[in-house]
Amino acid sequence: MSTFDLVTRTFSDIPYMDESRAALLRSILREYEAREILEIGFYQGKSSVYIGAMLEDFGSGRLVTIDKATARDRSPNIFDLMKSTGLERRITPRFAERSYTWELQRMINSQPRPQFDLCYFDGGHQWDRTGFGVVLVDMLLKPGGLLVLDDMNWSMAGSAYHRKNPETMNAYSEDERSAKTVRLAWDTLLPHLGYSHIREYPAIGWGVARKNG
């Protein structure tokens, strides 16, 4: 049994990445020979162990993944999933007290600066974090590296969490509430940064872009 299949069998009841999305991501990693991976947002770590499993099955590679410090308190958490699959050597979790943007700053200013082949971006969908986060991730991607954006059509007004907690939108204007902020980054920032749009996957809300160079 492959490590990928082990993750599928063991964690079928854990959100959020399902087998079909993981299989698509695996095909992208394989096609572009991406082995040094950055992930923004892991929740309980299912997507992380899927990526770790892909790298294990490929025989090389490393994932650095970032989420808030509160992710430690989830049950099971990313460490439980890593231990269950024996993927500790493939995955390095990093925990942010407030925002993943500060962790990205730390990585950018570390010596030597890490450089990644691909970033799977699934965190902090408001414009401030998404827009700034994309700019910071760009500084960590190699020329020719890939950016996979999740939730391309997410909006605050359409979010189940924000609809249940409408007070969380009080500080935002109507147009910002309704804006598809990840798509704004796709349409506005990526061309400015010199990225080529490779493909959208509307059924799952993904967009894949490539850094020129």
Automatic annotation (TrEMBL):
<dbReference type="Pfam" id="PF13578">
    <property type="entry name" value="Methyltransf_24"/>
</dbReference>
<dbReference type="GO" id="GO:0008168">
    <property type="term" value="F:methyltransferase activity"/>
</dbReference>
<dbReference type="GO" id="GO:0032259">
    <property type="term" value="P:methylation"/>
</dbReference>
<keyword id="KW-0808">Transferase</keyword>
<protein>
    <submittedName>
        <fullName>Putative O-methyltransferase</fullName>
    </submittedName>
</protein>
<dbReference type="InterPro" id="IPR029063">
    <property type="entry name" value="SAM-dependent_MTases_sf"/>
</dbReference>
<keyword id="KW-0489">Methyltransferase</keyword>
